[in-house]
Amino acid sequence: MRTKTLAQSEKILTAAARLFAAHHFHETRMEDIAELAEVGKGTLYRYFKDKEELYMALLARAACQMKERLSAVDEAPDPRSKLEAVVGAILDYFAEHPHLLDLIQHAEVMQGPDADLPWQRLRRENFRLVEAIFEEARRSGAFQVMDPQLSAQLLLFSLRPVIRWGQKPRPADMARRIVEHFLYGAARPACGCR
Amino acid sequence: MRTKTLAQSEKILTAAARLFAAHHFHETRMEDIAELAEVGKGTLYRYFKDKEELYMALLARAACQMKERLSAVDEAPDPRSKLEAVVGAILDYFAEHPHLLDLIQHAEVMQGPDADLPWQRLRRENFRLVEAIFEEARRSGAFQVMDPQLSAQLLLFSLRPVIRWGQKPRPADMARRIVEHFLYGAARPACGCR
User: Fold this and answer.
1) CATH topology of B1-49 equal to that of B60-184?
2) I need a surface site. Which of A7, A70, B186, B187 has the fewest CB within 10 A?
3) What is the C-alpha R_g of chain B?
4) Selecting from 3.40.50.1970, 3.40.605.10, 1.10.357.10, 3.40.50.720, what CATH number does the domain A59-184 have?
């Protein structure tokens, strides 16, 4: 019996990512993926039993890579820089993987919002990461977030339109502007204290 | 030749909305829609040449109804109440049409982000509506939005996670909290001026 290798699996996933990005899920055939990955159909099916499983493996890989990027957030010196690092890491990763948001939205629509997709586990971890930064800010006196749960959702999800419709290439200070907006709002009040 | 009537078209759209909501687009057959709407298949095809056209008509109808709701925004007494009215109207409409966001996301994924869908025309109008409220706020001295274009995007798109993952039934003060968050940010600065 032939064993599975990581390199082979990577080759298949890379080919699948390219095809899912260029065509719709329903238009992409397992044959096309095998051909682009230069593996036999038998080999392909040994690795992934169907297109759905391949699709989920793609999202799992993206979630894993994204998580690795986010582990660098701890190195930022203060809570506000940490929030900027979170936002920057997410925007960077999506910029490098321009069709990832489509894959995620497609999976959400297909599986329903409550499905336990790999990407949704990462999302929950990201909520906790952001809430932990809020807590650090509160303890250190940097700032206090009044409604941490809603705020974490609003911050992380506000990135979707920036990813999908935002100016490309993204202005260098985008993460800073988004966090500024998030922390202190769109409006400048009359008291002029900032 | 038999003419088309609005009532007949409504009957078909209502049936289609129910089926698209309960099943995936690809699982829903024109036959099922005709059966639920109690019209013949021939009649159905006279109204809508295929499933795609029906789908687009559904989104167009939703966009039109949503636009009607938003016309009430002008009655609110000041810019901040107007923003709350916009947010409230959108959250209400989606709460009454629980599968609409799925239909929209599905259309976005299928058609690509730059397609000229009915819903995307409404989105552009909503951006302009919100930017006009910002401008009114600036003129009246209520508040000044520093980055109106980005801010309008962040406000309108931040509603998606609330629609999709938010607490149901929605707390009565949700629109107020979202606008408060939007205008003055998540953080309370140390100066205590608010």
Assistant:
1) no
2) A7
3) 20
4) 1.10.357.10
Counting beta carbons within 10 angstroms of the beta carbon of residue B50, is it exposed (0 to 12), middle (13 to 18) or buried (19 or more)? Answer: exposed
pLDDT at residue B132, rounded to an integer: 96
Architecture of the domain made up of A1-49: Orthogonal Bundle (1.10)
Taking the domains of chain A in order of start, what are their residue ranges?
1-49, 59-184
pLDDT single digits (tens) A116-138 = 778 888 988 999 999 999 999 99
The encoded tokens of residue A122 equal 């990462």
Residue with tokens 């959702």: A153
Q: Is the CATH number 1.10.357.10 carried by domain B60-184? A: yes
Both tokens assigned to A115: 């499905």
**What are the tens digits of pLDDT across the range A28-45?**
899 999 999 999 999 999
Q: Are B105 and B117 in contact (CB under 8 A)?
A: no
Tell whether the model's pLDDT for residue A94 goes beyond 70: yes
Residues of B in contact with A184 (CB under 8 A): 184-185, 187, 189
Buried b (16+ CB within 10 A) or exposed e, A161-172: bbbeebeeebee
Summarize the confidence of residues B95-119 as an average pLDDT.
77
Q: What pLDDT, on a 0 to 100 scale, did the predictor assign at position A114?
A: 62
Contacts A164 to B, Cβ<8 Å: 113
- Residue B164 has what pLDDT? 81
> Does the structure's ipTM exceed the value 0.90?
no
Which residue in chain A is spatially nearest to B182 when comparing CA positions? Answer: A185
Chain A contacts of B106, Cβ < 8 Å?
Answer: 109
- Is the backbone of residue A189 left (phi > 0), alpha (psi -120 to 50) or beta? beta
3-class secondary structure, A173: coil
Q: What is the pTM of this model?
A: 0.79
Q: Which pLDDT value is given to residue A76? A: 96
Q: Looking at the partner chain, which of B183, B188, B193 has a beta carbon nearest the beta carbon of A144?
A: B188
For B42, the token pair is 């021939």
Neighbours of A153 (CB within 10 A): 21
Element (H, E) at A144: strand A144-145
Distances (CA, A) of A117 to A56, A63, A125, A165: 7, 10, 13, 25
Residue A48 above 90 pLDDT? yes
Nearest CA in chain A to B138: A187
